[in-house]
Specification:
With 116 residues, the protein is mainly alpha-helical. It has five helices and no strands. It has two domains: 71 residues; 44 residues. The N and C termini lie far apart (59 Å).
Length: 116
């Protein structure tokens, strides 16, 4: 019996890129609808979120290509690592945005403590 390889029309990498772009557009859209920001604030938030999506994309692509997930013996460890990575990235984004929004350094530290 001859088995022919199945060609997929859309690769898993393309699904990953589409998911990241739709997440980016949804987040910027929610910010635009609910916060009603000025044009400058919208551009700053779009740039910060774009950088965050790029970091997530690069780390996700490296983890997929290097097969890092398969090297970890327990699923709980993978989930914990993903959670810590996501929490760290959120703290960095909030710190950057808080630096742009607040004049008083006390407010920035307060926001960081509340995020913890």
């Amino acid at each position: 019996m001859i088995v022919y390889p199945v060609r997929r029309s859309v690769t898993p990498f393309m699904w990953f890129v589409v998911a990241l772009l739709s997440l980016y557009l949804a987040t910027v859209g929610f910010f635009w609808v609910f916060a009603a920001p000025t044009q400058t604030d919208l551009q700053i938030m779009a740039a910060v979120l774009g950088g965050a999506i790029a970091v997530v994309g690069v780390i996700g692509f490296l983890a997929y290509r290097k097969r890092w997930i398969y090297r970890v013996p327990r699923v709980g460890t993978v989930v914990l690592a993903a959670y810590l990575l996501a929490a760290g990235l959120i703290l960095v984004i909030v710190w950057i945005v808080a630096q742009l929004l607040f004049i008083n350094p006390y407010d920035v530290i307060l926001v960081a403590i509340v995020m913890l």
